[in-house]
UniProtKB/TrEMBL annotation, chains A, B:
Its main location: cytoplasm. InterPro entries: PurS (IPR003850), PurS-like_sf (IPR036604). Part of the FGAM synthase complex composed of 1 PurL, 1 PurQ and 2 PurS subunits. It catalyses: N(2)-formyl-N(1)-(5-phospho-beta-D-ribosyl)glycinamide + L-glutamine + ATP + H2O = 2-formamido-N(1)-(5-O-phospho-beta-D-ribosyl)acetamidine + L-glutamate + ADP + phosphate + H(+). Belongs to the PurS family. SUPFAM superfamilies: PurS-like (SSF82697). This is Phosphoribosylformylglycinamidine synthase subunit PurS. HAMAP family: PurS. Gene3D superfamilies: Phosphoribosylformylglycinamidine synthase subunit PurS. It is found in: Cytoplasm. Pathway: Purine metabolism; IMP biosynthesis via de novo pathway; 5-amino-1-(5-phospho-D-ribosyl)imidazole from N(2)-formyl-N(1)-(5-phospho-D-ribosyl)glycinamide: step 1/2.
Amino acid sequence: MIKARITVTLKNGVLDPQGKAIEHALSGLGFDGVGQVRQGKVFDVELSESDKGKAEADLKAMCDKLLANTVIENYSVTLT
Amino acid sequence: MIKARITVTLKNGVLDPQGKAIEHALSGLGFDGVGQVRQGKVFDVELSESDKGKAEADLKAMCDKLLANTVIENYSVTLT
């Protein structure tokens, strides 16, 4: 069994109102010196595949088809 | 300036309906052999701090106070 972590983040230049809200909330809580905050998603996936190459190809296909919107988001896949 | 990535994931045993929905959607798309899927959140934070120790302590405080619900979620902080 292979375990993988997929991280999906917004591309640079794409507005992130959720991240902005967190920035303001952190300042309000007294954390000074907080610059940009960007929020993304993480998926921990278990695969019954044993071939690492095949697993990685499958995971990339999952991102392209379902997990990420590649117009505005980047993704990275790491096998753990 | 320090850049950090905070990853917040659900603790084991906490139900994750969003992850379950993704499991089913992936099976529906023809991806066989997908086991458990768990969804989490990732925050990319920029700090104007230069002391790494201080930055790490601040980031953990941010998680405890705002970014994670430590009753049901784990978090990890990595400086990038």
